[in-house]
Amino acid sequence: MNCAVILLFTSSCCICSVALDTPSRAESKKLKYLFDPPVYAEVAGRRGDNVTLPCILKTKPTHYRVKWTKLEPELLGPENIIMISNAHASKPYGHLGLRASLRNAHAMDASLQLSHLELADGGIYRCELVNGIEDESVDITLSIEGVVFPYQSKKGRYKFTFHEAKQACAEQDGTLATYSQLHRAWTEGLDWCNAGWLLDGTVHYPIIHPRPVCGGELLPGIRSYGSKDKDLDQFDAFCFTSQTSGSVFYISGSFSFQQAAQACKRQGAELALVGQLYSAWRFENYDQCDGGWLKDGSIRFPIRKPREHCGGIPEAGVRSFGFPNQMTHLYGAYCYR
Ligand SMILES: *[C@@H]1O[C@H](CO)[C@@H](O)[C@H](O)[C@H]1NC(C)=O
């Protein structure tokens, strides 16, 4: 009976489309061995945290393996296996290496533990019970808690190809944001009138206060330019970062860029990266009403409690004065240690 159902499923799959083999597959079938819905369908953690992706057996078939794979955002390409285990042993695979382990809290536990979370660990994970006849699976979303920040080239607006945008985010302690990270940032108040690359090669910008110069008087929302040519088209970047292990501090002064770098060095620190400043703003409520140099040569300052004389913008945010001449002696220094 079950075989017949599977055959039917398989053959119809060949005729219509690959859409049948999406994460929703698990929901369309009543599971015999795995708890479904899973204990938590979504797990969240910050960079550096340890998390557990739950997967619990209800009953055990005589012979089986449990296979953990990551589906997104690397959906394209070969299957991304993280862990394979049977009743006796388990073996980690792939890029997570020893950061992945099985929790093994009890006899029915196939939950996956990930330690020292990294920015790129976010995505959809699948716990699959494989016994050769009735394979079944549950999907769990891991979201990295963090902050999205728009990033523009020193050379001006819309100067990054996709690859340059990716590189620019990495240099500021971030990654290119995913669409869902940008969407979440929009729900939390990000309004930005310049289009930027996302990790999947699409270009978007988030608007809360619709205005004619920013895509017209449409409803608030995320404006989309769709997929763009990664080698030819040029835009800004939306970067994503999370908690950091160090902290950001401000040194007051009227420094040139070089002097600011030396002031940090004297404190055993370095000029902060843009991502590090955003992380401190987001996770430590860092608020400092003074423009200061950052390592990329920009001047910024983080505001949690908006006030008239600190930029005059009614929303919290990290303000930017762009990239002034590095000889300008006007600003303090934001350092990271
Ligand atoms: C995370 O797990 C590792 C072992 O894998 C442990 O050394 C570390 O202290 C844990 N970190 C936290 C924040 O719990």
From TrEMBL:
Please indicate if the UniProt record lists Transmembrane as a keyword. Answer: no
Alphabetically ordered keywords of this record: Disulfide bond, Extracellular matrix, Hyaluronic acid, Immunoglobulin domain, Repeat, Secreted, Signal
InterPro entries cross-referenced by the UniProt entry? C-type_lectin-like/link_sf, CTDL_fold, Hyaluronan_bind_Proteoglycan, Ig-like_dom, Ig-like_dom_sf, Ig-like_fold, Ig_sub, Ig_sub2
Q: List the disulfide bonds.
A: C193-C214, C289-C310
Task: Describe the location of the Link domain by residue ranges.
Answer: 147-241, 244-337
State where it is primarily located: secreted
- The positions making up the signal sequence are 1-19
Output the Gene Ontology cellular-component terms: extracellular space; perineuronal net; synapse
An example GO biological process term is:
positive regulation of neuroblast proliferation
- Which SMART domains does the record cross-reference, listed alphabetically? IG (SM00409), IGc2 (SM00408), IGv (SM00406), LINK (SM00445)
Q: Which residue ranges does the record assign to the Ig-like domain? A: 37-143
Protein's cellular compartments: Secreted, Extracellular space, Extracellular matrix
Q: Which GO terms describe its molecular function?
A: hyaluronic acid binding
Q: Which family does it belong to?
A: Belongs to the HAPLN family.
Name-wise, this protein is Hyaluronan and proteoglycan link protein 2 Brain link protein 1
> What's the source species for this entry?
Channa argus (Northern snakehead)
